[in-house]
């Protein structure tokens, strides 16, 4: 028998983490013809999940909403016209539910899981079959739960622009040790690229080197890290790909690091907002392309998963794992930047759904 209720978290307002409310028995709607019911085993958190209850997210949010975009689970029921999945399949959520392929549209930006569409911090969730993908076969549920947002964003940043896709021998600059940056490092090394990473501590620098970073710069002791990164590139030409996660406060350094005709992909603003930031003319002065990235399409997701399986890439997951009832603590842990790599929430053991 398919479950009729689920434990879940809901964002009910914009008053910070106090806006997170836990429900022991939320109703599960009846499945539509093309719906798939997923028993979630793990979810993972992103910076975006933390700022939604703070009212600081720039894309559509429809409250109340179940938070978190990233989830991995097992299909336990399907609608009568579902063709892509069967019971028992291991699946992941697609961040923007309608972004199946090609350039993202305005409509797609209004289908974000955990923002405009109910997310993954719940035992059971129903999704249209088009909004799910199969898990990589080489990963477990905890590892795979980290892929829908951060990994796909990194993949899009490196492969999302025709004519500027990552090539062997290119130089990639990553910032910090958050999920997107670590995935970008792993994808770039798998592709035969050179990687320069920045971080704020010697301990994290050693981990980045273990993951394959060719050079690591401490941005606290080297305030001109953009120029340093350019000098470290072959012949001092600069970086072909830069994953810009800091936002206005780091953009000036990224522009100093980029090579002519290089690509800067802006994916976040964890460094905070600032009025003191480069003008658009700096793109001309540095002869580079700057683009915004909002995760990626289902087609890109499936291509990325193939690459993960082929190259044996394993997501870097923080050793701390929270339970479903500890979501507020997990949000605070991540907000205080105590994590390294991806932070996960364990929801249920595989095979424990009440059928």
UniProtKB/TrEMBL annotation:
Please report the name of this protein according to its UniProt entry.
Answer: Enoyl reductase (ER) domain-containing protein
Which CDD domains does the entry mention? MDR7
* Stored InterPro entries: ADH-like_C (IPR013149), ADH-like_N (IPR013154), ER (IPR020843), GroES-like_sf (IPR011032), NAD(P)-bd_dom_sf (IPR036291), Zinc_ADH-like (IPR052711)
What is the top-level taxon of the source organism? Eukaryota
* Annotated ranges, domain Enoyl reductase (ER): 16-345
Which Pfam families does the UniProt record give? Answer: ADH_N, ADH_zinc_N
